[in-house]
Task: structure prediction
Amino acid sequence: MIEIKDLHKSYKMGSNSLHVLKGLNFSIDEGELVAIMGSSGSGKSTLLNILGMLDEADSGSYTLDGVPIKDLNETKAAKYRNKFLGFVFQSFNLINYKSAMENVALPLYYQKVPRKEREEKALKYLAQVGLKEWATHLPNELSGGQKQRVAIARAMAAEPKVLLADEPTGALDSKTSYEVMDLIQNINDKGNTILVVTHEEDIAHMCKRIVHLKDGVIVEDKKVEQVRAAQYVK
Amino acid sequence: MLNRDNWKEIFETIQKNKLRTFLSGFTVALGILIFVVLFGFGNGLINTFDDFFGNDATNVFYVFPGRTTMPYKGYKSNRVIEFDNSDLADIEKNFPLFLEYISPRITRQDTVSYLNESNSYRTLGVGPAHQFSEMTIIMKGRYLNNQDIKNKTKYAVIGRLVEEDLFGAKNSLGKYIDVGGSSFKVVGVFQDDGGDNEERIVYIPYTTQQLIEKNTDKIGQIVVGFKPQIGYAGAMAFDKSLDQFIRSKKFINPKDQNGVFIRNVADQLKQNQQFARVLQIIVGFVAFGTIIAGIIGISNIMVFVVKERTKELGIRKALGATPKAVIGTILLESVFITTVSGFIGMLIGIVILSSLGDKLKDFFITNPYIDTSVAISATFVLIIFGAIAGYVPARRAARIKPIVALRDE
Result:
């Protein structure tokens, strides 16, 4: 599903050049649930940005579902993002003047799905995250966990190949975190490929594989025994 | 870009961001409103100005006789100059190239009465051509004609207000009025744009006036209309040679300031036109300033709007909005708001102007108005500049990496 070869990325900071990613190689198969771990400055966010086509690598190759991702202009990147990727952010990033349902329907708007179909689909995905009766509520009427569930529904609505979650539980207490992880695990169970960036050990162990980044190189890449989040959710 | 779904998205955004919509809409509406009102006031100022100076023909000289202050060719000073019928004929004979029409004007103040109503009015003994110099408009009946002059008929043409004063609502045509002791038949009623005083006048044939005054041939002033095509230079040349002609005929010292005086409307006209042009430039300048202020206002709002929406745009981009879609969202929204509020402001302004009418006449503003085409063009200018002002920050927002926009809290 995702294949990365010899990925390099450096940022220019004035006269200095900061080498963030120093030749990464790894691949992710369909249906995997991968945690990318590392302390801040390890390059995990940069990696996620490149995977999310929000940033471009200096060298190396990146293939997503058999499509080589290179020479992207903004328009092309936007189309690929819409088609291939779903994003979940630490701060939810819901549009605050749109209802839960409208937020979920937004990626479909950019896929030019007709309004009626959009709303049906959005409701379907809201139902999947257990928020069907909250469809008409604005984000500020929802709790943090509910917001993140709406965000996940929105990420899923476009039926992406890969779900990218950047610290999805970073702004949530541990109980809500487990609920969200439970949801992510359920989505993964249905065969979706998911990448989770986190620095929390317990969250990482709820994934099936942990890639450990340090100073721009992969220091560890191991399969783990998945801890089911459901056991923490009463 | 312009399908129904996009519009629905825009309407929802507008509805749910009322403050933003109100701010940008208000700026534009106010800008256009002030522009329309100011521009209209400027036009009202020009109207007042035209009212003061613009109700008579402009291709006219008024020749006034005076009293000499210098001796000349054996004549003593302090001699009263008078015009008579021969002067009319001589001027006509000597200036055929310049002259369009000529009429004497014998001014008297007479008591005019009909039945029990009576009042004092200006009576002017004139020729048929006087109608052109005063731009007299005949409402009913006719003006004096050459037959009246020749036959010294006792016909009178009375002003609209004279009829109103003496006859009330009744028709005056064919009735006999008493003018200074003689009976005249009313053959016409006129109106004049020059104000009430210009409509409280009784015109009678100058020959009749002369007959009443012991069959004299004296004629007071002379009104000379020149051909408009001779232009300003031609008028000035005519003015000069007419002056010379009269001075030589009446033996007036060429340097005498008081023997004869020619009021040249063409000269006045030129000054008036210059003044009107200055007014128009001032009005244009003020209007231009208002539009610039409006453009700056809408630009500020647009920068604010884009800044406020940076995060939202970042989210939209992460969800697959292309840069074009991002720019389109902002531009369509702003153009829609500016168009609607611009036209609302324009309409309010036009309504205000047309409801004012003569109410501000004391402030020298008469019938303020604005050409619809000017108002619409100004509105479009503001819409276009609003769009440009929105495009620049929108393009920058569209270029920002979503991840940067999302981090921006």
Notes: DSSP finds seven helices and ten strands in chain A.
